[in-house]
Amino acid sequence: MPFRIYTKTGDTGETGLFGGSRVSKSHIRVDAYGTVDELNAFIGLLHDSLEEEAVRELLRQIQHRLFSIGAALASDPAQPMPADLWEADIQILENAMDAMDNQLPELKNFILPGGFPTVSLCHVCRTVCRRAERCAVALHEYEPAEALILQYLNRLSDYFFMLARYLGHLAGASEIVWTPRK
Question: Which residue range(s) make up the domain with 53?
């Protein structure tokens, strides 16, 4: 039998977790994995907007890690499904940030999102990632989540900030410096 997209089992506001239990669609667990899914969709848009093959490859790897994180967050806490996530995945992000930072001018001001379409899209990814992190932390306070998930989401938002600066630099776009009202 083919896989069905609609099941009608969520019509009353509940959804099933991996493992079989059901929770409200407003449950923090659903918010957490739903926000990770939203982030993954924005990363797909960013990926498709870029020509830099090395960046595209890393974004695809990130999407795979996020899908695994989403599955782990969508699993029944009585039957947890660990995320396919290693400490090396965090190191990959840190190495990428360090490599980009070595090519950028020193950051001396707060900067605003914008200046070039892919820069803006990186900032959308960064802010959605921060929201996913907040949701995962809230879930962790309610039902323990894997520490690596929290660390990865934290580092990933930093990565998107650095990627925004880097892509702007490659495009020759000036950073928009925040200037407070006098």
Answer: 23-75+84-92+108-177
**Does residue 99 sit within a domain?**
no
The count of structural domains within the chain is 1
Residue type, 87: E
Q: What is the DSSP string of 52-92?
A: -HHHHHHHHHHHHHHHHHHHHHTB-TTS----S--HHHHHH
Dihedral sign from CA coordinates of 63, 65, 69, 71:
positive
What backbone torsions phi and psi does residue 33 show, to the nearest 5 degrees? Answer: -75, -25
| Cα–chain center distance at 177 | 25
Tens digits of residue pLDDT in 116-134: 999 999 999 999 999 999 9
By 3-state DSSP, what share of the chain in percent is helix, strand and coil, each rounded to 5? Answer: 60, 5, 35
Model confidence pLDDT, tens digit, residues 62-84 = 999 999 999 999 988 888 888 99
- 171 CA to centre of own chain: 23
Between CA 154 and CA 162 the distance in angstroms is 13
| pTM listed for this prediction | 0.92
CATH of the domain at 70: 1.20.1200.10
Strands 22-24 and 14-16: antiparallel
Domain membership of residue 14 (yes or no) is: no
At position 13, the amino acid (one-letter code) is G
